[in-house]
Amino acid sequence: SERGVTLSMEVSNLGATTSSRQVLGAWVLVHDGTIRAYQVWVGERNIEPTRHRSVDLHIRGTVMPDDVIIMAVQETTGGGAAPWRRDPKDLEREIHEAIEQARPGRQ
Predict the structure, then answer these.
(1) What are the pLDDT digits (tens) for 60-78?
(2) Is residue 102 predicted with pLDDT exceeding 80?
(3) Which residue in 47, 65, 38, 60 sits closest to 10, CA to CA?
(4) CB of 103 within 8 A of CB of 32?
(5) Does the pTM of the predicted model rise above 0.85?
(6) Which residues of 69-95 are buried (b: 16+ CB within 10 A; e: fewer)?
């Protein structure tokens, strides 16, 4: 709708320790690779190793039927393990590089 789209997903802990904080990013891309929207989801509930939980992420703004939504983990912390974090701008650059590589005629 004009108010956005809601994604339902499962967040899984594939690590060996409890995850107490999870940060996911969702990028909405137009067919030419332009970023139409970006939304972040932050979860601060424990997820034990090998467990998962269902969450909803609402992307505000217009999302068209032919847009592509890319999800990425930006941060995890907890359980005594070293925090892991990726900068959203670095992830955007990787998304654009992947789109360029996937374009027809590219080797």
Answers:
(1) 988 988 898 988 889 989 8
(2) no
(3) 47
(4) no
(5) no
(6) bbeeebbbbbbeeeeeeeeeeebbeeb
